[in-house]
Amino acid sequence: MNTKRLTNLFGSLHWLLSFSLIVAAIVAASILFLEPLLRQVSLLPDTGAAWYYWKLPDPTWLTRASAWGGYLLHQLFLWAVIAWAQRNRHLLADRNRLHTINYIALGGTLAFVALHYAQTAFFYDGLAQDVSVFSSQASVVMLLVIVLIIEAPRRGLIMGRGKAQFFKNIRPIFIRYHGYYFAWAITYTFWFHPMETTFGHLLGFFYTFMLFIQAGFIFTRVHTNRYWTILLEVGVLVHGVSVALIAGQEFWPMFAFGFALMFVLTQMYGIDLSRFWLNSLWLVFFLLLVLVYNQRGWANIHEIFRIPIIDYVLVLVLAGIVALVMRLRAKSTS
Predict the structure, then answer these.
(1) Which residues are CB-neighbours of 247 under 8 A, at least 6 positions away?
(2) Within the chain, what is the greatest distance between any pair of CA atoms?
(3) What is the pLDDT of residues 288-312, one digit of tens each?
(4) Is-contact 112 70, C-beta < 8 A?
(5) What's the predicted TM-score (pTM) here?
(6) CB 17 within 8 A of CB 222
(7) Four-CA torsion 77, 215, 19, 273, nearest 10 degrees
């Protein structure tokens, strides 16, 4: 494959990113064509937060094998891509263009998306049939926590502060291995759900496609572009709030202001905003907070702190465990 010719044909990396996002949007929209088939599936009544509604009431070994088989093949494919790229990073020194491995990653993932599309049409079920609904949510939460650790030496943890040597020391470990975890979290979540046509599912799949695109641009400047990566971080706010609103859940402000608080406390300090814009975003946050909680009741204000507290506690716990393991390993080899 002449990757230089393909790159020249499509233009810059950013054009390629835009093209990939357009394809992702089209694929997400095409899930709507499954609607007639999906309406033939009878689902059990919803029994609460611990119950995943979109799964077959009478699964068979074949429906399970279709989901787990597709997932395992997709998972091994992405891990193989990452392993090859890391072993051959000397061939990927030019970060301003796509390499053959990038086209393989993007094209292969598109093929697995098509496989999941067909699997949903014929067998419906996803991994949710056999695992807890909370496992998918937890995998994404931990992904976001690892991003906080990786970015801490550059943007700090709280309002640009916290760029401690501690995070600089452990960052290489996360940089080296984060791709394997991220590939697992994204692929697991992708195959966890059948390709349902609710707005929440469609938005979730599009967000997942964005994360797959990020993986496909490994060892390019797009992969580390601050504005693109911050968009991926903030995307969970849009998805979380949309799903909560569609489900009629009254605690949607917990997601809206919880993730928004993460943005104004930490994430926006990584994109070189002027003091004017930093202060302006804080002002918008507080104005919206007052607007919503004057109606909702200030007795519920505690809910906006749940997500940041969980995230920051997990950052300290995970970073502490890695630092401890590194210290013990250093002592054992000295």
Answers:
(1) 200
(2) 65
(3) 999 999 998 898 999 999 999 999 9
(4) yes
(5) 0.88
(6) yes
(7) 180
